[in-house]
Amino acid sequence: MQKSLFIKLFVLFVSVNMSCFSLNAQKKSTAISTDNKITEKVLQEVLDQNKHFASQGKVADYIPELGKMNADAIAFSVVDTNGKVISVGDTDKKFTMQSISKIIALMVAVQENGEEAVFKNMGYFGSDKPFNHFGSLEITGKPLNPMMNAGAILTVSMIEGDGETAFQKVLKMVRFITKNNNINYNETVYLSEKETGHRNRGMFYIMKNSGLINGTEDQLDNYFKQCSIEVTAEDLAKIGYFFANECVRFDGDAIYKNTDLSKLIQSQMMVAGMYEFSGEYARRIGLPSKSGVGGGITVSVPGKMGIGVFSAPLDSHGNSVAGYQMILNFSKRFGLNIFAPK
After folding, report:
1. Is 223 annotated as a binding residue?
2. Fold (CATH) for 40-333
3. Which of 1, 73, 74, 297 lies in the 20 to 30 Å Cα band around 16?
């Protein structure tokens, strides 16, 4: 009788474990099949269905050189869960990172100083104000977050080194993440930003007056230069993948692997990466994203993939109109919203 009971329990144990194995295999199979559906043909369909939205936007011209961007150029790129890069459209079209560079500078600053020291003098807050708004700077002396211009200027000032050392560190990190040593900054755009960046200069001196910044305008120049780094949509997809996967590069290089840093960057992208549109964007798309007025958006699908889009015409918030629509379409198609049941 004891032997019979033992056999029954053994059979039950095997049955339960086989069911679990089958369920896990099914989940794995589903993930793989989803990846297999992300093809060049699919991306081209998404691009074609949404490129007309560009006509609803306006190319940024408050920085004169940005106003010269081709409004018809458009590109869409994805780095899937296996690190495979798939791109369509104007894949070779270069554009400046602008505010997307802020997440790279934040990474470098936190690596060198620690999160506590970096956020001692700025907040984790979102905002209902545009990217170049002073926020509460004049009242508290502290920027709202590192994604608005004031916080980004303070962030790059925390990176160690004289002259353009801080900028070179940001550029080096961009090159590493994208595995593209040909990336550089556009000097013409940099000089245009420097010439017209009076609001940013005002923020710099308010923070200098309150003791948050101790250096010279070289630190502000580093900010203008990092914004002028030129990339492609594919580079943005690789950046999105990097932060989505614990700071591991698309080819598996894990030299900078850091789960906490990955969480920090993605949380700031979610809270403030799309400026005052961030709340609505989170509701509709539900993915950590960072835009730039150069027309690019980088997206992290946590634990999975990276997405990069480019289309220069912007909406009133400073986000790419067609880029947003491509991400929305793609996210719905593959059920990527992190708030949706899986």
Report:
1. yes
2. Beta-lactamase (3.40.710)
3. 1
